[in-house]
TrEMBL record:
The chain crosses the membrane at residues 236-258. The keyword Cell wall biogenesis/degradation does not apply. Residues 1-31 form the signal peptide. Keywords: Membrane, Metal-binding, Signal, Transmembrane, Transmembrane helix, Zinc, Zinc-finger. It comes from Nicotiana attenuata (Coyote tobacco). Residues 116-141 form the C2H2-type domain. The lineage of its organism: Eukaryota, Viridiplantae, Streptophyta, Embryophyta, Tracheophyta. Residues 32-49 have a biased composition (Polar residues). Residues 32-60 are annotated as: Disordered. It comes from the Eukaryota. PANTHER family: RE51073P, ZINC FINGER PROTEIN-RELATED. This is C2H2-type domain-containing protein. Residues 50-60 have a biased composition (Basic and acidic residues).
Length: 282
């Protein structure tokens, strides 16, 4: 043992090498050790936009304009399609399956004015725009981007700007844009409602031209949606109808009780008259 200590004292390089090896080993062990439980929880449950970005799929389609296009279809076209009991062909660009955002829009749950909920993960949001951002960040992988399914591309033909209130009433008409939108509109009529397919398709083809395509002109002859759309029941009319149905039985009850009392009073008067009447002298 004495000889070993003397050798170590005479060889300081070996001591320095041992110290370096111990330091390197300890640092490598600390680097590979797992995080504490609280740090792991922070990493797992963080939901900042920066962490959402890796999940985003780039989609070159306007969600707002696609929503406006579907609103026009649902409001000013589908009531006539349902009345004719006509089924839109799959190749029609107005078919629900050709809207890339349709599934996400159907998974929106509107609970209150300031409460929206995601139908996929049940998270709540204060406004629809925040729910749209959540879809873009967390559920964009559910979008079918394999085919061209951007409903916003047909917004020009469907007059989406009027629904979105982007078009000013004093805006100058562009003849080239009007002709382009009319051509697109007539193409939609031909693909969605082939004139020779059936009588229903022929009627809907004509209606689509009058409802949407004829308004694409700078002459100001026809207005969009000239055939009308879905009828919305007036809230005042609805409230008045409910109130009338509630008060009508009460009214009939009052009339019945009044008539019964009048009839009862008449019978009593007749009896009193007969009893109190004096006999004629002989």
């Amino acid at each position: 043992m004495e000889n070993l200590r003397q050798r170590r004292a005479k060889n300081p390089c070996s001591l320095l090498l041992s110290f370096v090896l111990i330091t390197v080993l300890s640092s490598s062990i600390s680097a590979t050790s797992p995080l504490p439980h609280s740090d792991q929880g922070t990493e797992q449950h963080a939901s900042s936009p920066e962490q959402d970005k890796p999940h985003v799929h780039e989609v070159h389609c306007s969600r707002d304009r696609s929503r406006a296009a579907w609103k026009v279809i649902e409001e000013y076209l589908m009531p006539f399609v349902e009345r004719e009991k006509y089924e839109l062909p799959r190749q029609c660009r107005l078919h629900p399956s050709n809207d890339i955002f349709r599934d996400q829009e159907e998974h929106k749950i509107h609970l209150d004015v300031n409460e929206w909920k995601c139908g996929y993960c049940r998270k709540s949001f204060r406004a629809e725009k925040f729910l749209d951002q959540h879809f873009d960040n967390r559920h964009s992988n559910l979008l079918d981007v394999s085919h061209s399914k951007c409903l916003a591309d047909v917004c020009g033909a469907l007059h989406c700007d009027l629904v979105m209130e982007f078009k000013s009433k004093k805006a100058k008409c562009n003849p080239a844009a009007a002709a382009r939108n009319r051509h697109l509109c007539e193409g939609l009529a031909d693909s969605c409602f082939p004139a020779n397919k059936s009588p229903s398709a022929t009627r809907l083809h004509e209606l689509f031209l009058r409802q949407f395509c004829d308004a694409h002109t700078c002459s100001g002859g026809r207005k969009p949606f000239s055939r009308g759309g879905k009828k919305h029941m007036n809230r005042f009319y609805l409230a008045a109808s409910v109130l009338t149905l509630m008060l009508l039985p009460l009214f009939y009850l009052i009339v019945y009780l009044y008539q019964r009392e009048m009839k009862k009073g008449t019978q009593e008067l007749r009896r009193i008259t007969k009893v109190g009447r004096k006999a004629k002298p002989s």
